[in-house]
């Protein structure tokens, strides 16, 4: 049994297919499939039920628990070795950009899991420091191409040559307004319900906004975007007048803004795009690649 087999097992289990795991690991699908078959031969039982995609069997789930424990221990050893040698090295800084409002609300105000992992990585890696910036998705991707930043968090799976994206989980966008707004009595919202409704103009015409505009066009109307200053007082006044705004949702926001309602889109109209960690495929700092792996593994725990 070899370590790369355990890494491939973990990747397939979380990605749901050998092809997606191979893409994430920068190896061929054949290499992943061969490693899984070899591991099954060594253990003497099947790890995946291939009649249902690549779903773990009961034995596979048990092996995965132990495999990921081993991989975490290896990460610990790697970080320890880095720490012991840090005294002889200069401090190395990583520049990380987060998508501007509203996603930065989840990061900076609510302690998103990815931010906690960055803090943990810095704490456990002497000689490492982090500078953070807020940008639009497009600005983040441009900055990566120009080598102005090392990592960036974006909303959606953009296609840029030389830029690698690691999905970290879906981000649900909801329709937000005041409880006093007529929409406040609804359980959910359909795209068609928003025809003629004033919608606060998005800060960044990103993939979600473009997908939303396309969905509105499919229902035969243009969304009624309005410019609204980016502060709570102005947004509340806008919503009091019948307006709404669209924002990535975190359950903790309901406690922070009890006067507001956070309405999900109807399942048939829901638009969910993943939060992705973006970095350069080439010329990336070794420390940046270690942080990518640390975040990815940490969010799988």
TrEMBL record:
Residues covered by the HTH lysR-type domain: 1-57
GO molecular function, one term: DNA-binding transcription factor activity
Cellular component GO terms held in the UniProt record: protein-DNA complex
Keywords: DNA-binding, Transcription, Transcription regulation
Tree of life domain: Bacteria
Residue intervals passing through the bilayer: none
Pfam families named in the record: HTH_1 (PF00126), LysR_substrate (PF03466)
InterPro entries for this protein: LysR_HTH_N, LysR_subst-bd, WH-like_DNA-bd_sf, WH_DNA-bd_sf
Family the UniProt entry places it in: Belongs to the LysR transcriptional regulatory family.
Protein name: LysR family transcriptional regulator
Species the sequence originates in: Eggerthella lenta
Taxonomy of the source species: Bacteria, Bacillati, Actinomycetota, Coriobacteriia, Eggerthellales
